[in-house]
Structures are given as C-alpha cells and as structure tokens.
Specification:
This protein is of the alpha/beta class. The chain has 3 domains: about 1-50; about 95-175 and about 330-385, 3-Layer(aba) Sandwich (D-Maltodextrin-Binding Protein, domain 2); about 175-325, Periplasmic binding protein-like II (D-Maltodextrin-Binding Protein, domain 2, 3-Layer(aba) Sandwich). Helices cover about 50% and strands about 15% of the residues. It contains 14 helices and 12 strands. The strands form 2 sheets. Strands 1, 2, 3, 4, 6, 7, 8, 9 and 12 form a 9-stranded mixed beta sheet that branches. A 3-stranded mixed beta sheet has the order 5-10-11. Strand 6, helix 7 and strand 7 form a beta-alpha-beta unit. Helix 1 (about 1-15) packs antiparallel against helix 2. The longest helix is centred in the N-terminal third of the chain and has 59 residues, at about 20-80.
Length: about 375
C-alpha cells in the first residue's frame, strides 16, 4: 500500500504542477521512477526475509515440539507409573478388545476399571463376564479369554490344564474381600463359630433342617435355636465357594476324615445378588457372599464370626487387618502370550495397576485396598512378566 500511495503521489506531483518546466517535470518523473524501483527492490528483499523467518520459526517449533513432547512424555510417564496415565496417554492411543471372565466377586472391579479406562482409551472394547472362578479358569486355560478374574489362587489342577495348552500367565493380586456370613433380620443369632458353620453347612449336615441340628455332630457348638434352616450360598463354580471351604470348613473336615466340601442340599447360585435375595426371604436363613455385596444389603443380618479368637464383625477395617477370620485376596490372571501380542490388553492391565485401578476402582465397588507394599509387589509382578 505504501508503494502504491507513493507512486500515486509522485505522478500526481509531476502532472499537476503546470508551473514547472518540461525538463523539471522530466527530472521529477525520472526521480519518481527510480524511487519506485528502489522500493520494489527493498520490498522483494523483505519478502525473502519473510520467507526465511517462518522457515526458521518452523524449525525452531519443530525442535520445541520435540523437546516439549520429550519433556511432556517424561513427565507423563513419571506420573503414569502411579496414576491413570500408566497404559493410557504414555502408550498413545490404542484400539482393540479385551476379554475377561471368571469370578463374580472380582467382576465389579474389572468392570469399574474398564469404565475408568474408557476415558483414557475409548477405542478399546473391554468385555467382562462373571460365571465363577472355576468356570473362568476353564475358559482361560483353553485360551478363550485374555484375563481370568479369580476370588482365590489358581489350583494346581487348573495350572496344569493351562500348561498342557501352552498357556503361561502372570498372577496379580488386586484387592481384599471378606466373606460375609448372614442370616435373616428376624433371627436371634448374633455370632457363629467355625464349628457352628460346619454343623450347619458342612459335608456331615446333609438333611439338617434346623439350626439346632448343628449340635448333633459331637462338635463344640453354640446354643443355636430350634428354628428352620434355609441355606443360600455360592455354587461349586464360584471362587467364594472354594474360599469359604478353605477358610472355614477344610481343617474341621480333615480332622473328621471328611471331604472338604459343603452339604449338597442347599440353594446354590453363582449370582451373589440372587443369594442375598434368598437370605432376605427367610428370617432364619443362613448364607454367605462376598462382603462387598452384603455390606449395603437390606433385610439381612451380618453375623459376627469366631475363628478361635472371639467374635469379630465384618467391616473394611477388620478385613484389611485380617482380624475378621473369613477374609481372602482377589486376583486377576493375565495370559502372557496374548499380552505380548495385544497393545490393548497391555494398556488395560497397565491401567489396572495404576492408582485408578488398584485404588479408586477397588474402593468404588466396596472392596478393601491392598497396602502400598502389596500394591508395589503386584506392579512388580506385572512389570517382570
């Protein structure tokens, strides 16, 4: 615009001043032309400088971005080791699917992790099913799932089935759960011993229809009432079933030369919510489920349990400390080969190992968090796979 204005002004001055001689006007025109050419040349030079400046700035930005990403990545990775960035932003965007089956007790944790993980990796589809720990291991050891949720450690026979199919896995402890022992709200019983429980639901109690029948086995039991006994609990496919036997019944059964199992004649179900509904249906019922399912249930009474050290109620503190005698650890098992082949699976488990997974998700669904040392051990197992 300045060139155009100057050109217009010069030519106007030469043409409009009629008092100048022809020679003077010619000199003015020549001067104007030379000035214009000089300004055009300067402008061209400035255009070259302008081209150079963005180019230089672009190179600087490139270097700046690289440095920024490096710094940002380093910062993100550092935070990711203890936060939700682990397996999320630090890996970049990933896509794919993750298939999980197994414990109905651990299922809510894995589902909650998946919900939180979706905010970080929305292109990963996570499917979680809860048919029971035993059924989950069958699928896992046949290579049909990526992760097996488990409310107990894998049995030797199950590990052998995995090995026979060439499946290697990593075991990751993710939380703690107590098994709540319950009855209906109308029952007068407040506390039961391990002997009481064995007399009610152990392998020698088949056919018993009253609470007081538990005393007929010759065990030292509490003074239990002569009221109807309706039993609701997990079936054999459930990790809660196995853990309950291992913690409460096994030692007594072994001492008495019996198989470590329950009586077969009770209302068994893999769904903890259905079990609770059954317990709610009778004032003198007896049953057991994972503490997280029972903690906020209405229409039931959580019984204190005496494992030899006195009656202790189930709550987050007594379960975490191990004071409550019917407590157990919760696990996930990850197929190593599938993890090696699937960035989506690695990203999900990385997120599971973060504070969002082992902390927020576990507590969100009502289970008890591992100690910091236990979390560190779990993360080390995953990192060392």
């Amino acid at each position: 615009m300045r060139l155009r204005k100057l050109k217009f002004t010069t030519w106007s001055l030469a043409s409009s001043n009629s008092n100048l001689s022809r020679s003077a006007r010619l000199l003015i025109l020549m001067f104007g032309l030379m000035t214009t050419l000089a300004l055009v040349a300067a402008a061209c030079g400035n255009d070259d400088d302008g081209d150079t400046t963005p180019s230089t700035a672009g190179q600087t930005d490139s270097g700046g971005d690289t440095g920024g990403d490096s710094g940002g990545s380093s910062s993100s990775d550092s935070g990711g080791s203890s936060s939700s960035d682990s397996g999320g932003d630090s890996m970049g965007s990933v896509s794919g699917s993750v298939t999980i089956s197994g414990s109905s007790t651990v299922e809510p944790i894995s589902v909650r992790v998946a919900e939180l993980f979706e905010n970080v990796q929305p292109d990963v589809q996570v499917t979680v099913d809860g048919p029971g720990t035993g059924d989950g291991f069958k699928l896992f050891c046949e290579g049909e799932t990526d992760i097996s949720d488990a409310s107990r450690q894998i049995k030797d026979s199950e590990a052998e089935a995995c090995a026979a199919n060439g499946i290697e896995f990593v075991e990751l402890r993710v939380g703690i759960d107590g098994i709540a022992v319950m009855t209906g709200e109308g029952n007068s019983v407040e506390c039961v011993t391990f002997n009481d429980i064995y007399g009610l639901v152990g392998p020698e109690s088949t056919g018993f229809g009253s609470w007081s029948d538990a005393g007929s086995l010759g065990l030292e039991t509490s003074d239990l009432p002569d009221v109807d006994l309706d039993i609701y609990g997990p079936g054999e496919e459930s990790g809660t079933f196995d853990s309950f036997i291992e913690i409460v019944l096994e030692d007594i059964a072994d001492e008495r030369g019996q198989d470590a199992t329950t009586r077969p004649d009770y209302n068994a179900n893999a769904d903890d919510n259905v079990i609770i509904q059954g317990i709610q249906s009778s004032d003198t019922s007896f049953g057991w489920v994972g503490f997280a399912f029972a903690a906020h249930a209405s229409g039931v009474k959580l019984l204190d349990v005496d494992g030899g050290g006195g009656c202790v109620g189930a709550n987050a503190d007594t379960i975490a400390s191990g004071e409550y005698p019917v407590s157990r650890s919760l696990y996930i098992y990850v197929n190593k080969a599938k993890a090696a082949a699937s960035p989506a699976l690695v990203a999900y488990v990385d997120y599971y190992m973060s504070d969002d997974g082992l902390g927020t998700a576990v507590s969100d669904v009502g289970y008890v968090n591992l100690t910091d040392d236990a979390k560190g051990a779990t993360r080390a197992n995953w990192a060392g796979r």
